[in-house]
Structure formats: C-alpha cells, structure tokens
Design brief:
single chain, alpha/beta, 6 helices, 22% strand, binds glycinamide ribonucleotide
C-alpha cells in the first residue's frame, strides 16, 4: 500500500553502481518520496547484492526459470512494491508484466534514446556501437518501461561528450558518472513523488 513514501524495488543483474547511486541519493535526501525496500537480482553473483546488504536492504535472487516473471510478481506483491526500477537489469520483460505495472517501471539506458537502443543494445555493447558510428555526443536516458525494449515514454536525458581515444570502458564510466548516476536518482524521486501525490 502506498503511504507517504513509495516502496521501491530495484532490479539488477551486475555491478550495481546505479543501485548505489540510488541508495546514496536516499541517504543524502535527493530521494525523499520513496524508499528502496527490495533488491531483486536474476544473478546470484551480482555485486549489486552486496551493495544492497551493506545498506540493510532486503534482497532476493530470482533465477531465469520458466516461472521467472511469476516469481518476480509474487515477490513484488509480498513486499507491497509501488515502483520498480531497472538498474542494469539485463532481462527483457514481457507485455503482460509491463502492462501490469504500467507507468510504474522505469529503466536507465546508457545512450540518448532513440540512438543505440532496443534488443542487443545493453551494457558495453551500447558504447561500442556509439564509438563505431563515430557520434560525438552520447549520454543516458531514463524512461518508463513498456512492451517495446527501450520504447517507453522518456522521463530524463543527459548528454555526454565523446573524446578522442575513448574506449568502450572509458566511455561507459564517463556516461555513468556524468549522466546515469545523476538522472536516475532524480527520476526515481520525480516518479515516486508523482505516485505518492496521485494517491492522496
Ligand atoms: C549501466 O550502464 C546501465 O545503464 C546499463 O548497464 C549498466 C549497468 O551498470 N543498462 C543497460 O544497458 C540496459 N539496457 P550497473 O550494474 O553498475 O548499474
């Protein structure tokens, strides 16, 4: 049940630097309309789980079986989740799942959508593609999640310059530092606030 603050679940698969940015923003008061109540990983070895444990947040590992989405829904319902944040979650969610949580799932993507997005564009591949195309500007996007991969309504974007000699790894780090870790927490606050206000 939505009270004064939204209950947030963050879904992760890997390192969890974006999860960390959200936890830090909660600590510093940038996020005040929501609270991370649950972290779900499809990967039991994800370092993101350690970050969640260090912050005292409850974790669940849900592996990709035939009942994957059903198990995620059960877990979200048990925890009374209002907002789902995909933060480096490397799984595509079905139409049924995204429709069930319409405008209540957000994702961070490491490019300026509609460039370098959709199926196959995830993690370092996105930066490899941007460098291969020779674009001079890239960035990050936070958007609502619907049944089209990276196709939902855009909430926030921030541009980042590409520099001579960039490798995919160097560019990934710059996009995270200058864009993702800033706009994701801001978007989490914005959507949490809207959700809590809508319920009052
Ligand atoms: C981030 O760059 C995120 O934008 C990207 O994976 C990285 C995860 O890093 N996500 C996607 O490509 C999803 N399409 P993190 O685990 O350190 O947050």
């Amino acid at each position: 049940m939505l009270d004064k603050t939204a209950r947030i679940a963050v879904l992760v698969s890997g390192g969890g630097t974006n999860l960390q940015a959200i936890l830090d923003a909660q600590q510093s008061g940038i996020i005040k309309s929501g609270r991370v109540s649950l972290v779900i990983s499809n990967n039991k070895d994800a370092y993101a789980l350690t970050r969640a444990k260090n912050a005292g947040v409850e974790c669940a590992v849900i592996e990709k079986t035939a009942d994957f989405e059903r198990n995620i829904v059960d877990c979200l319902e048990r925890h009374g989740i209002d907002l789902i944040v995909l933060a480096g979650f490397m799984c595509i969610l079905s139409k049924d799942f995204t429709a069930r949580y319409s405008e209540r799932i957000i994702n961070v993507h490491p490019s300026l959508i509609p460039a370098f997005c959709g199926r196959g564009f995830y993690g370092l591949h996105v930066h490899e593609a941007a460098l291969a195309r020779g674009v001079k500007l890239t960035g990050a996007t936070v958007h609502f999640v619907n049944e089209i991969p990276d196709g939902g309504r855009i909430i926030a974007q921030k541009a980042v310059e590409i520099k001579e000699g960039d490798t995919p790894e160097i560019l990934q780090k710059r996009v995270m530092e200058q864009a993702e870790w800033i706009i994701l927490p801001q978007a989490v606050e914005k959507v949490s606030k809207e959700l809590t206000e809508a319920k009052q």
